[in-house]
Specification:
The protein is of the alpha/beta class. It has two domains: about 15-220, Alpha/beta knot (3-Layer(aba) Sandwich), CATH 3.40.1280; about 245-305, Trp Operon Repressor, Chain A (Orthogonal Bundle), CATH 1.10.1270.20. It contains ten helices and ten strands. The termini are far apart. Bound molecules: adenine (ADE).
Length: about 300
């Protein structure tokens, strides 16, 4: 547990490391403030550096998105910056201690600008105005609800998301229960497998959510027919040359017949979804007559092939 830089000797938690290496000239967006603030707490803040790249990094540069990464060890006060201990009741592995998490989360709440009495030195807001707009605390965990595009869309409307990246066997349940009083608490899994910690899962969710914030992606039309946008997988795509190593682009795409191309693409989406993710099709209730005819055709073609 020595991967992070040692404490400076100053007991005051350091400011979040802003992932914003370049600050270009102020834009109207900047003047209006970020559309969303995201804070991430981790013992491996370096993991999150990838978020500086590409469209998310540009959104941070433009001031559309504010991204702060906090080192959990900055909220420990012992010589070894201890964040974990053995589990009560026995068992393998280590458990993340409650207090550093509480201090880190209180620090983030405190950065929002107000304190209350009787809670802690950093203070936690409980006034009505704030309760109505509690920040959302996402705790990545294989025991969470499975993250999907609907949840990404829902979270893209929030003002403030906080990601608590656990490691080891997880975080002491008491601080999770405490946090539920001050945040909208969302334990989230990114799939039915186990990662070593919440950092990669947080990056997955941050990317999926922040690309849906208006203006983050240059061409919003590119969001329209993506996989999962409307419950179907996306259609296959092609670019030049029209003949690549003897393989032709489907002729219809060269026809200029927009209606026929749209139908062909819709059919490919239905076909691909039926083949790869039939579970998604079962959830759809807005298939039209043409869709149902196409699905029946694929089904009978498939049963002919397998006979
Ligand atoms: N941490 C460990 N495994 C995870 C998963 N599948 N999803 C989210 N966080 C995790």
């Amino acid at each position: 547990m020595s991967e992070v830089p040692p404490m400076t000797g100053d007991d005051t938690p350091t400011e979040a490391v802003p992932l914003e290496p370049v600050t270009p000239a102020p834009t109207p967006t900047e003047a209006a403030g970020p559309q969303m603030s995201i804070d991430v707490v981790s013992i491996f803040p370096e993991y999150l550096a990838g978020l500086q790249l590409s469209l998310i990094g540009k959104a941070v540069e433009r001031g559309q998105l504010s991204l702060g990464v906090h080192d959990l060890r900055d909220f420990t006060f012992d010589r070894h910056n201890t964040v974990d201990d053995s589990p009560y009741g026995g068992g393998a592995g280590m458990v993340m201690k409650a207090e550093p998490w509480a201090l880190a989360l209180e620090h983030i709440l405190g950065e929002l600008g107000s304190t209350i009495e009787g809670e802690s030195p950093n203070g936690v807001r409980t006034d009505d105005a704030v309760v109505g707009s509690k920040p959302t605390l996402i705790v990545p965990s294989p025991a969470g609800k499975v993250f999907d595009q609907r949840i990404a869309e829902d979270l893209a409307d929030r003002d403030h998301l906080v990601f608590a990246c656990g490691r080891y066997e997880g975080i002491d349940q008491r601080v999770i229960d405490w946090a539920a009083e001050h945040f909208e608490l969302l334990p989230m899994s990114i799939g039915d497998y186990v990662l070593n910690g919440g950092e990669v899962a947080s990056m997955v969710m941050i990317e999926a959510i922040s690309r849906l914030i208006p203006g983050v992606i240059g061409n919003p039309e590119s969001l329209a027919e993506e996989s999962h946008e409307d419950g179907l997988l996306e259609y296959p795509i092609y670019t030049k040359p029209a003949n690549w190593r003897g393989r032709e682009v489907p002729e219809i795409l060269l026809s200029g017949n927009h209606a026929a191309i749209a139908r062909w693409r819709r059919d490919r989406r239905l076909e691909r979804t039926a083949e790869v993710r039939p579970d998604l099709l079962e959830r759809l209730d807005d298939l039209n007559k043409d869709d149902l005819v196409a699905l029946e055709r694929f089904e009978s073609e498939r049963s002919t092939v397998t006979e």
